[in-house]
Amino acid sequence: MQTKVGNIETLNGIVSIGSDLWAVGDLGGTFRQRGSGWTAVPSSVTDPLWSLWGSTTTDIWALGPSGILIHWDGSTWSPRTLGLGTPRGLSGTSANNIWAVGGMGGIYRYDGVGWTKEMSGTTADLYAVWAVDANNVFAAGSGGTLLYRSGGKWQSEASPSSVDLLGIWAADSTTAYAVGNLGTILRRSSTGWAAETSGTSSMLWGVMGSSATNVWAVGIGGQIRQRSSGTWKSITSGTANDLFQVLVTANKVYTVGAGGTVLSRNL
Hints:
Radius of gyration: 17 Å
Shape: globular
Largest sheet: 4 strands, antiparallel
Order of helices and strands: EEEEEEEEEEEEEEEEEEEEEEEEEEEE
Distance between the termini: 11 Å
Oligomer: single chain
Number of strands: 28
Number of domains: 1
Number of helices: 0
């Protein structure tokens, strides 16, 4: 993996929006890569930011567990109101279909006008969310909690694990992956969720793939795992820093973490 260290602030989330990369960090930092270098973009907040998502380069959202929600309009970040306790995860598919999850089973949806609370059916803390499209959304959280939204309603799905699940990604409405404590990796298929052998007992924080069969997971101590040909293998990261999120684009894999670490690798 190629290593880049853009700053000393721990980076928690990374997304690709248009031709730009954006990352957020523990000190409220937001950072943009346009071309070859990373540039700090003043956010006006100092509390941690954990997740971000955007529909275009002039419509980006970021949030953090202290309750912060900010929006980028192409020139400045501005605070917005969400109402979600300890917001942790953010995902969307368009400017009018964005999802935020957080503490006590909190789920909010943005429809292009405002944020509306949805009934999740759980009081478990939710740490991650992934929207496939306007009708299919997945969420994961404490105690092995797995939720799926279809037909306008959230429902709990049977989980083979009781550990906290910290990351989730779905290739489509059937195949999804969740990762968490103790090296846990779960895979969803047409028959439900099942545990897979990850080859590690270290905490895994993030997961994303380029397809249903080529998936990457990252975690504590520079752990990077890749699933190909149906099995998970270790990928040398070149760092011992904790890694918190992974991003897979059309031709590269990126991951971010402690100490401002940014790693990249060609697919």
